[in-house]
Prior knowledge:
Blueprint: H1 5-13, E1 21-24, E2 43-46, E3 50-53, E4 76-82, H2 85-93, E5 99-102, E6 106-108, E7 113-114, H3 129-135, E8 138-142, E9 154-155, E10 170-172, E11 176-181, E12 186-192, H4 198-203, E13 210-217
Parallel strand pairs: 1-2, 1-5, 5-8, 6-9, 8-10, 12-13
Antiparallel strand pairs: 2-3, 3-4, 6-7, 10-11, 11-12
Amino acid sequence: MPLDRNGITRRAARELQDGFYVNLGIGMPTLVANHVPEGMTVWLQSENGLLGMGPFPTDAEVDADMINAGKQTVTGVPGHSFFSSAESFGMIRGGHIDLAILGAMEISQGGDIANWMIPGKMVKGMGGAMDLVAGVRRVIVTMEHNNKRGDPKIIPECTLPLTGLECIDMIITDLCVMEMDRDRRRFRVIEIAPDVTPDEITERTTAEILFADELRTIES
């Protein structure tokens, strides 16, 4: 059966490594903070000037002044620090962030991403997405495979305003895990959710995709 949001972000947390500096995008990616493996030290960074985010707070832990870039209240791990957004973007643009986990509205078969606006809808700005996809060493997207209308989100070419070109390394959806094959410029499915079939993935994807010879089942 397809993964829920916690299942998707739990799988994304398996891409973390000890000592990594990681930026989590607004929305679903913030849930990754709740799934950092026990005993692993990961420094979660937020564009508004925070390094060392912890899990979301309980009601007793809520501090209205402690927020992430999406204005959600967060906690800090021992050793967390605060600084200006200029310094925060200096970390991103300087290549000091190991991994970014972002959401997306569309991803092209070549690895382009559109995730910051829908024409005609009010947006506050592009935020840090364009800097992240250009400056971070590795970029992973967590999202549902299809939008609320059932339309594919992994498509031949993006139709929405682009955030970045050929910059996505991995996609984790409710159906599968895909890695970018840089030589063939296509995503390859390497893991599938329990009881999901390759045919179902193909039917719900309009992009040209590849499949690994041996498909692993995503661990719960």
